[in-house]
Specification:
The chain is α+β, with helices and mostly antiparallel strands. It contains three helices and 14 strands. About 20% of the residues lie in helices and about 40% in strands. It is elongated.
Length: about 250
Amino acid sequence: MKMYKSLLKRSTSILIYSLCLVFSSCSHPKESKIKFDGEWMLEAKRINVSQTDLGLYCISDTLYSIAEDACLETLGKFQIHNDTMIIKNYDRRIRDLKYIITKHTNDSLILLVNGRKREYHSRRLDYNDKLHYSRITITIGSYSPVIVKLDSSGNIQTEKRMDKTKLIKKTFKLNSEELNMIDSLFKLSCLDITNTEDWSSGYDGWRKSMKFEYNNKIRTIKTNGFTMPYRINPIFYRITKAVAERKAI
């Protein structure tokens, strides 16, 4: 009987202690940290926003703005207090930039910037598994251009004309990791809604272009600069990187 009472007393003490822990944790809930890592693209319906401003890119505690010319502009280090994102030392100035967070989920983000609402979606939602390319052709240069052709099987052929009679051709095949990466980037490219007009008024002796043959369509992007549309530039980088690593030019 004494042993029973002892066990009962001990069980009661454990129960009371557990209830205290539960009450304590409920009374002092932990503040959840909002995660912004990733790419946030501005919705198409945007008012009073520069057409070169495509969205925000966040990695760790640093925020960048995404420009259409494939450049990332550093906005600065940021901190989040309640519903406000504070970008410290914005644009190398003493003042801080403040964004008010009115909505944040894994897929969507709404900010108030200087009193104006900006709606974003996660770039993951841009993925379109119905996009399939049959060939991507890159042309670099004008007078003696380098031409790089990639087909859907991962075969790459490069051509460079040395003079009127000499044309150097090389071929190689991408490995599966490289091919899967380019295919994934292409499905994220939003090519159907990308502005493919010439990025310059004329060519000045140097050019860069990409022609996409996909889904029974052909689209070409041309520029005489060193940039490409933000969603297209990683494809250009991955293909030319593979060519350079094989010394195929």
